[in-house]
Design goal:
119 residues, mainly alpha, 4 helices, 70% helix, elongated
Length: 119
């Protein structure tokens, strides 16, 4: 019988899932407060190296790619904004970012790995 006053120790898998949940929330909040994605990418870089679970690793990779490709295309759109094409690019980038976060969060909730995961 377990003592109700002694906290249970979380398994490594539960801790990895909680970290990923926090990072998905941070990326989602970046629509309102852009700096939260920077906090999320830092967590992804730190946690990916010691991640033992293949599914969790695939989600860290997914989020890292989302962030860095988002940065790349933001810079391209900024450069192209002078000829107005960049504004269209920003709209496409916004939809793409939203798609990546929603798709990743749904797969995360179903305990599925993201595409491109290493075995």
């Amino acid at each position: 019988m377990t003592d109700p006053h002694v906290p249970e120790v979380a398994t490594r898998s539960e801790v990895e899932r909680n970290v990923l949940l926090v990072t998905y929330v941070l990326y989602g909040l970046s629509f309102f407060v852009g700096i939260t994605a920077v906090a999320g990418v830092i967590i992804n870089h730190v946690k990916m190296s010691d991640c033992g679970d293949r599914v969790a690793r695939s989600h860290h990779r997914w989020l890292l790619r989302t962030f860095w490709f988002g940065v790349l295309w933001t810079l391209v759109c900024m450069a192209l904004s002078m000829v107005m094409i960049g504004l269209i690019g920003f709209a496409i980038l916004w939809v793409w970012w939203l798609y990546r976060i929603i798709r990743g969060a749904l797969a995360f909730a179903e305990h599925r790995p993201m595409p491109g995961a290493t075995p």
